[in-house]
Write a structure and sequence with these properties.
Elements lengths: L12 H10 L5 E4 L5 H9 L8 E2 L6 E2 L1 E4 L6 H10 L2 H11 L4 E2 L6 E5 L4 E6 L10 E10 L12 E4 L6 E4 L6 E5 L5 E4 L10 E11 L12 E2 L6 H25 L2
Antiparallel strand pairs: 1-11, 2-4, 3-7, 4-6, 5-13, 6-13, 7-12, 7-14, 8-11, 8-13, 9-10, 9-12
Length: about 260
C-alpha cells in the first residue's frame, strides 16, 4: 500500500492507464490531489529555499534553479523518497504505462524552483541513465507545490508534437501530478513566469526508467533543445549546442568506454 498517495488514486489504475494511452499530443495523465493531503502540506512547508539551489547549467535555454534530493532534506522528503522508490510505486507506474518501469532510488529526483522571468525552452530529455547504461529514460513524474497559482503567472507545462502540431498546456497547481512519456518525440517546456518577487514555482521531477538490452538502445544523448520557431538566433545556437553535447558523449565513450 502506498501511504504517500491519496488513498483514492490506487483504485483508479485502469482508468488512469486508459487516459494515459489516449492522451494527446503524446501519452500523459494529470492527477490532481495526488499525494496524501497532510504529506503535501508538509512538503510545501519544508520546501527548500532558493538559496539552497543552483541555477541550471543550460543558461541560454533555461532559467530555473535545481537541487538534487539528498539525505539532508526534512523527514517528509525522506518519506516521499521511501514511498516513491518502493516496489508498490513501481508497480503502480508499470500498470499505467503497460510495461515494467522503475524509479532509481539513488538518483531519485530533483527539486526545481523558478522565479519571475524563469522559462524552459521546448526540449526532449536525456535518454539513458548517467551510469546504468542499459536503463532507458522512458517516463517523467512531476509533482507541483504551488498554492493559489494564477493563470496570468505563466509557468504552464507545455506539451507539444512537432509532427502533428498539437499542444497542451497544464497549470502547475498544488498537489497536481503529471505522468508523461519521455522519448525523442515528447517535446515539452515551461512558459515564461511573470510573478511577484515573493512567489516561486515549485516542483519535484522524478525520472523513470526501463531496462533494455544494450543492443536495442538508441544513441545516447543529453537534453536536446528546440526553441520555438521565430527565434532564429536561438534556434541556430540550439543546433550547435545539441551537436556539441552529442559529440562530447561520443568522445567520452571513445576515451572511457562508458
Amino acid at each position: 500500500m502506498l501511504f504517500a498517495l491519496n488513498s483514492n488514486i490506487c483504485n483508479q489504475v485502469e482508468n488512469l492507464a486508459s487516459l494515459y494511452q489516449t492522451a494527446t499530443p503524446f501519452s500523459h495523465i494529470i492527477i490532481d490531489n495526488f499525494l496524501d493531503e497532510s504529506l503535501a502540506e508538509k512538503l510545501l512547508e519544508d520546501f527548500p529555499d532558493i538559496s539552497m539551489t543552483v541555477r541550471s547549467g543550460h543558461r541560454l535555454f533555461v532559467h530555473k534553479y535545481e537541487l538534487a534530493f539528498n539525505h539532508q532534506l526534512s523527514y517528509p522528503f525522506q518519506k516521499l523518497h521511501q514511498e516513491l522508490t518502493s516496489t508498490s510505486f513501481n508497480l503502480f507506474l508499470s500498470q499505467i504505462v503497460g510495461e515494467n518501469v522503475f524509479v532509481d532510488p539513488d538518483r531519485f529526483a530533483d527539486i526545481h524552483l523558478s522565479i519571475n522571468g524563469s522559462f524552459l525552452d521546448i526540449h526532449t530529455d536525456f535518454n539513458i541513465h548517467c551510469s546504468k547504461l542499459n536503463w532507458l529514460h522512458c517516463l517523467n513524474v512531476i509533482i507541483y507545490f504551488n498554492k493559489e497559482w494564477q493563470k496570468n503567472f505563466g509557468g504552464q507545462l507545455i506539451l507539444t508534437s512537432e509532427r502533428e502540431g498539437l499542444t497542451s498546456k497544464i497549470e502547475p497547481l498544488f498537489n497536481r501530478c503529471v505522468i508523461m512519456k519521455s522519448d525523442d518525440t515528447t517535446y515539452h517546456g515551461c512558459q515564461r513566469l511573470v510573478v511577484p518577487e515573493n512567489i516561486t514555482r515549485k516542483s519535484i521531477i522524478i525520472p523513470v526508467y526501463k531496462e533494455e538490452s544494450i543492443h536495442n538502445l538508441p544513441p545516447r544523448h543529453l537534453t536536446q533543445f528546440f526553441p520555438q520557431q521565430g527565434l532564429r538566433k536561438k534556434l541556430f545556437l540550439s543546433k550547435i549546442y545539441n551537436s556539441f553535447t552529442s559529440l562530447k558523449l561520443r568522445w567520452k565513450k571513445y576515451l572511457t568506454g562508458v
